[in-house]
């Protein structure tokens, strides 16, 4: 399947080695609005075509699948452009700025019979099933509490501090904490509590989020753009606990018993860079005529974005485009 990449920035460059490695993907076209970026990207990763505008690339009938890797604030506009040109689309997280935009994208994709999915890589990785299989096996007993944190020193990055780019910790890294909790504790949440510290620009710089589940379980999530955290995810049960090394790209899973002894340790399968799984699934689903991902269905994307909308509302954070 021939892919066209919208945006030749940092995330596209991180993803590109996975695209190159996949026999089911043809690295066909790349477009950037910054002069010289697309040319350099194409030369480095072997893409066949270079375009100076997204619309020009999407007008190319050879492009079958579009990968959107532009800032959060532009995801909606660019996905709608892809769909208007009859291209299947996979878009970086956060899928859109808010749930209203996501609903419109999914409706447009369905109306045109096109695949649309959020490219949040942890949803597609083998580690997700490994973690869930261990929980289902009862090795830590009955899970009761989940904690997860993700923090990086990125406060000086424009896409983080600029409200016009839908900045803040939540949409950039908080989305991983929320997805980690929902993947392994589900979404039957009855109450959400949170606290936030805002940046000078008004977007969230760090936050804690507590999810209260109907059955009494709790998930406590912490995110910050000011510091480097251990990025651990820990799920606690009545017979032990499970530690996931790096919720943003799990490297290992350790199981401890009730006396803090390591019972077992599992390394994740060797990977190109972790991004290959979302594109492999996209090609498979499109080939099967599916309009949404098995690993990240539309309902799950909407659930996470609706939670983020609710959190931002409680914090009084409104992006300029939403006013």
Question: Explain this structure to me?
Answer:
The protein is of the alpha/beta class. The protein has 10 helices and 14 strands. The strands form 2 sheets. The chain has an 8-stranded mixed β-sheet with strand order 8-9-10-7-11-12-13-14, with helices on one face. A 6-stranded parallel β-sheet has the order 3-2-1-4-5-6, sandwiched between helices. Helix 4 (75-84) runs parallel beside helix 5 and helix 5 runs antiparallel to helix 10. The radius of gyration is 20 Å and the shape is globular.
Overview features:
14 strands, alpha/beta, 6-stranded parallel sheet, 35% helix, globular, 10 helices, 323 residues
Pairing-aware structural class of the strands and helices?
A: alpha/beta
Q: State the distance separating the first and last CA atoms.
A: 39 Å
Strand order of the largest sheet: 8-9-10-7-11-12-13-14
| Helix content bin | 25-40%
- Mean pLDDT, to the nearest integer, reads 98
Number of E-state strands: 14
Main sheet characteristics: 8 strands, mixed
Low-confidence runs (pLDDT<50, min 5 residues)? none
User: How much β-strand is present in the residues?
Assistant: 25-35%
Shape by Cα distribution: globular
Radius of gyration: 20 Å
H/E element string?
EHEHEHEHEHEHEHHEEEEEEEHH
Alpha plus pi helix count: 10
Quaternary state of the chains: single chain
């Amino acid at each position: 399947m021939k892919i066209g990449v919208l945006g030749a920035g940092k995330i596209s460059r991180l993803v590109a080695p996975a695209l190159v490695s996949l026999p089911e993907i043809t690295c066909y076209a790349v477009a950037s609005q910054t002069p010289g970026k697309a040319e350099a990207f194409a030369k480095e990763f072997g893409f066949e075509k270079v375009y100076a505008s997204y619309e020009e690339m999407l007008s190319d009938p050879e492009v079958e699948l579009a990968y959107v890797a532009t800032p959060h604030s532009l995801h909606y506009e660019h996905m709608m452009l892809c769909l208007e040109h009859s291209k299947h689309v996979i878009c970086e997280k956060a899928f859109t700025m808010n749930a209203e935009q996501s609903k419109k994208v999914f409706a447009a994709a369905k109306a045109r019979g096109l695949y649309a999915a959020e490219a949040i890589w942890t949803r597609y990785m083998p580690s997700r099933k490994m973690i869930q299989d261990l929980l289902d096996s009862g090795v830590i007993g009955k899970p009761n509490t989940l904690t997860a944190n993700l923090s990086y020193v990125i406060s000086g990055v424009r896409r983080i501090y600029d409200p016009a780019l839908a900045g803040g910790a939540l949409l950039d890294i908080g989305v991983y904490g929320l997805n980690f909790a929902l993947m392994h504790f589900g979404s039957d949440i009855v109450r959400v509590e949170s606290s936030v510290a805002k940046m000078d620009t008004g977007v969230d710089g760090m936050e804690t989020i507590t999810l209260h589940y109907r059955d009494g379980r709790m998930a406590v999530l912490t995110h910050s753009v000011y510091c480097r955290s251990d990025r651990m995810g820990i799920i606690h049960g009545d017979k032990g606990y499970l530690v996931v090394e790096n919720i943003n790209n799990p490297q290992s899973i350790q199981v401890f018993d009730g006396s803090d002894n390591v019972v077992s340790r599992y390394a994740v399968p060797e990977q190109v860079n972790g991004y290959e799984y979302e594109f492999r699934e996209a090609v498979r689903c499109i080939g099967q005529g599916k309009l949404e991902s098995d690993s990240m269905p539309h309902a799950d994307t909407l659930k996470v974005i609706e939670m983020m909308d609710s959190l931002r509302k409680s914090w009084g954070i409104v992006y300029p485009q939403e006013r």
